[in-house]
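FORM 7B - TANDEM STRUCTURE REPORT

SECTION 1: FIRST PROTEIN
SEQUENCE AND TOKENS:
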Amino acid sequence: MADRTRDLLWSDVDTLYGAILAHPFVTGLTDGSLPHETFRHYIVQDAHYLRGYATALAVCAAKAPTDDDTLMFAEHAAGAIAAERELHADLLGALGLTSEQARELPVAPATRAYVSYLLAVAYGGSYAEGVAAVLPCYWIYGRVGEHLVGAGSPDPVYQRWIDMYAGEEYHAVVEAVLDATDRVGAAASPAELARMREHFTTTSRYEWMFWDGAYRRETWPV
């Protein structure tokens, strides 16, 4: 269906998605050129991010108009915390860092900005706006996983990361959120749909910035 909300949203960020695929952080996962220190910085920041993302998902659950959507986003909020504890603990261990040590490291500028934007939209916007804001983290990771899995990685740590986001279980989660997006988008007023598009594009840009910040091992300049 050409008139699905998901198709409209993706049309706004297709060029941006190409920039994500071309970023040396992403290409470095499959050719093995990404230094482990850079990936470790990314995992530390992702752990910080997921705690804020879980809060945004919980707010979406609280605002959801149906029991099914409330249950879905509440489960995903719990899943984000579980991922932060389990997957990241596993990956950090392979990279020589404990979860406790990672928690004490500073939140980088891109991470702080991205999480702050998500929470502002989730709390201050409508349910539809919140869904649009949290969607890129689901969808872009799924698309990146699909793109990278064919090439694979010579590095087992990176392959583990790719396999998770390319897996059927993860893609079933993404599809459920896309279905919710289509439903709320179909019911949205033109003004609300315009805000959904703005939020979706903004947080898609933050996805690029998050990987770029990790690649540069971004710290606060002052």
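SECTION 2: SECOND PROTEIN
SEQUENCE AND TOKENS:
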Amino acid sequence: MNVEEVFKNNEKWIAEKLSINPDYFTDLAKGQSPEFLYIGCSDSRVTAEDLMGIQPGQAFVHRNIANLVNNVDLSVMTVLNYAVRHLKVNHIVVCGHYNCGGVKAAMQPADLGILNPWLRNIRDVYRLHKDELNAITDEDTRYNRLVELNVQEQCVNLLKTAAVQEAIVHRGLTVQGWVFDIRTGKLIDLKIDFEKILKDITEIYKLY
């Protein structure tokens, strides 16, 4: 794949869309009203539209290394607030994936420079769940479980925000925790009990 091929592919994509609906781009330009805010990993193998089977306009997307929801990351917080308070999305998805390079890198005893403070968030997830993770003897299984727990903790970080708390109360916004299995293509719902988690953290994190 090179740059020239990208633009050729773009022309083919335009032609395909217009052959199905001559007003496709006119309609797309009218605005957006997505149902989902998708927060995923920057990994080049994991794209929201493909794995969810959705079209442009159906999901507002934010991606970063290891799908983190860091309260001091202005980028993710800006996306979150815009999606919830202005676009009025009804569902927020945090989607991790097995064999995540960011998760594995976080657990290596190495100085990764500028990545250190970012990946420390994953080390914090490990610390919170150390007993469960250390009991898993197989390394790959342990990393996969850390991927799942990282998704859960990023969802908890969403529940700590005022925008999400307000939207849950007023219009039933839901938070979802998913994992994508690259080896099978399967999208897995972790079925996290967010109602219980929200109740447990309300005493400390209630903002609305």
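SECTION 3: OBSERVATIONS ON SECOND PROTEIN
The chain has a mean pLDDT of 94.
Residues 97 and 139 are 16 Å apart (CA to CA).

SECTION 4: SIGNATURE
Preparer initials: ____
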